[in-house]
Amino acid sequence: MSRSRILIADDDSKFTAALRQRLMSKNHAVVVTTSRMQAQEIAQKDRPDMVLLGTMQPRGDAFKLYKWLKESPILSDTAIIVVDAPPEKQHINGWRKDEGLRLECDDYFARPVDVPSVVDRIEKLLDKTTERITVLVADDHAVVRDSIRAVIDLQKDMQVIAEAVDGREAISKTLEFQPDVVLMDIVMPNLNGMDATRQICQQWDKAKILVLSQYDDQETVRASSESGALGFIPKRSASSELIAGIRSVSQGKHLELPVAV
Fold this sequence. Notes:
Distance between the termini: 45 Å
Shape: elongated
Number of domains: 2
Structural class: alpha/beta
CATH topology of the largest domain: Rossmann fold
CATH superfamily of the largest domain: Response regulator
Mean pLDDT: 89
Number of helices: 11
């Protein structure tokens, strides 16, 4: 299973520590918090693949977080597992009955819970929810990287998993993270995008690289193809063309947009 991002919002420190350790041993990225506001900040920034909602103080905050997730345009489809207090303590710090009746979560547990069983359920749900196209963005301008990330973050089927500021870092991070698609700028310090693309393709036969550049003449497009890139997108193109290009290249399709001669 690919590396997934999991957010745990729960105030049972013993349970969350054991769960986090087990999930991380399976190569998942896990963040734990006991605060509703902090959970919202993390979720908005990182867009987790799975949220485990436990109990939080003040009572009712867990349900408020649940409602916030369901009402968020970019998080409403996130898989959610609820872990409630033991039956004998639910009237003190568990989920209220009226809250439970309004739940539309993917699974529900009441403590005491078996951590391996929860992990098994999480992974089965993740199998259905983590079919995202992973993207590495290589560009030496932070503004450009931020703009691309903002566009990709709006897509439910893709995510930026790494960024690189020059050609050498693009090579090392591509080999480390093995993204589905590499968005490669041409003009970068230390090593340009063409040479970086060529070296990546020589070292990793599954590389799918989409060149993104302000230079869109025929010679540049041809050079991109010769270096091993599957496609070329001018930076002036609309964001919809970039997203369509990423989806096409992720499937191994060659993409070449028409440019002026």
